[in-house]
Amino acid sequence: MDTPDPQSLDRYHRQMLLPGFGEAGQKRLAESTVLVLGCGALGTVAANMLARAGVGHLVIVDRDFIELTNLQRQILFDEQDVEDSLPKAEAARRKIARINSQVRVTAVIEDINHTNIERLAATGEHGPVDCIVDGLDNFETRFLANEVAVKHGIPYVYGGAVGTVGMCYAILPHTESGDSPWEKAGRATPCLRCIFEQAPPPGMNPTCDTTGVLGPVVSIVANYEVVEALKILLGEYEVVNPTLLSIDTWANTTRQLKVARAYEVGNCICCRGRSFEWLAGQYAGGTTTLCGRDAVQLTGAGENRLNFEHIAARLRSHGEVKLNNFMLRAQITDMNEPFELTLFNDGRAIIKGTKQPARARGIYAKYIGA
Amino acid sequence: MSAITVQIPTALRPQAGDHEMLEVEGESVRQVLDGLCQQYPDLGKRLFKNENEVNRFINLYLNDEDIRFLDQLETKVKPGDELAIVPAIAGG
User: Which residues of A touch B64 (CB under 8 A)?
Assistant: First the structure.
């Protein structure tokens, strides 16, 4: 087999035939930077397709390592990666290098939070990245991504999936100056906070690690995200889907929920008020490594009290769960490591078995949710 | 009284007798939800923050239009309408 020419556009022939692409569009993709936040199920599928489509620079951020139960849906990883205990971002970088050597991948092994997200969003060729694609597993970080998008005028494609259902929505943010190309084209959309005013409280919603997730659902959602991201990168704002797409693959329903009025009528604190509370760390779940105890405490961010019965019912398939009126204690094995998770009804948690705040936040997001 | 279809999201089906869809009578969104929550009180606890307020991480769409931008809970419904309960999806 011939080694592909590093500059050649030959491999994109079938894509360049499509309207809006062509050689000019393809070159535009090659000059683009996309920030992929999270490299789990949604993130691997999105990064894979963005790389194959020829997006020049991908910045992939994830705090986790690969484990066996990821392989059912996280398509960039294989058994060898599990064996090698590779960080997800690095394994994705290595795999993409074999898929498309024309694409530059920056792997960032970090917990995404209010202290680093603006730096991550400024890794584009001329400052801000061209688009943020959502591969996240919690709403706290999504509201951060949303605020970065609105504050810095970066398009952000939200995706979420759990069980057999999923959602996708492209945010072309209203900017302070109002002179972004999508606003000039009259195609700005409400932000995520216009639509969902509040993050679901911890324990309220199912997570993929407690309820399960159908592999194709994450692929479907992530591929919709990539479709919207490609339209955005090509500047084809008039064809960006302005609705919140909601899919239930088991009930056989697809809905395009109309959200356009949310900006005009909703008086959103973020995109109309231009108040960036999540970026300011106002809702950040603080963490403290508990000295000498091999444990990390996470301060709850939710205002709602936790429902221990619901959480216990979901966690029992992972190990022993004990609860009383004040706390819930669960034994969990995650990536072959035992943890003891103690939850208090103000949302505070102590995770025993690690001294690393990022690992503790990961356990919390996976098993309790946010 | 007219019956409309209410779509129950997966996350809330255990609190709604495992139904994907329910036919509920009422003339406004509020009447429909009252009827639903009378039948399934646990669903009510998950949906409502208090008597007059739906939890803000759950949206209600009548024929794919957000009721916050119609007449909120007082939005009138007619036979054949579809009310979808749509919680934010956090997984991924």
Answer: 243, 255-258
In chain B the first and final C-alpha atoms are separated, in Å, by 41
| Burial of A186 per CB tally in 10 Å (0-12, 13-18, 19+) | exposed
Active site residue A131: no
Rg (CA), chain B: 12
- CA dist A54 and B38 (Å) reads 54
Interchain contact, B10 vs A265, CB within 8 Å? no
| ipTM for the complex shown | 0.92
B55 reaches A (C-beta below 8 A): yes
Listed by start position, the domains of chain A span 10-266, 287-367
Q: Which domains does chain B have, with CATH numbers?
A: 3-87 (3.10.20.30)
Residue A305 confidence (pLDDT)? 66
Q: What is the pLDDT of residues A136-160, one digit of tens each?
A: 998 889 999 999 999 999 999 999 9
B92 at interface of A, judged by CB pairs closer than 8 A: yes
CA nearest to B48 within chain A? A304
A10-54 residue pLDDT tens: 999 999 999 999 999 999 999 999 999 999 999 999 999 999 999
Residue A302 scores a pLDDT above 60: no
| Domain spanning A10-266, CATH architecture | 3-Layer(aba) Sandwich (3.40)
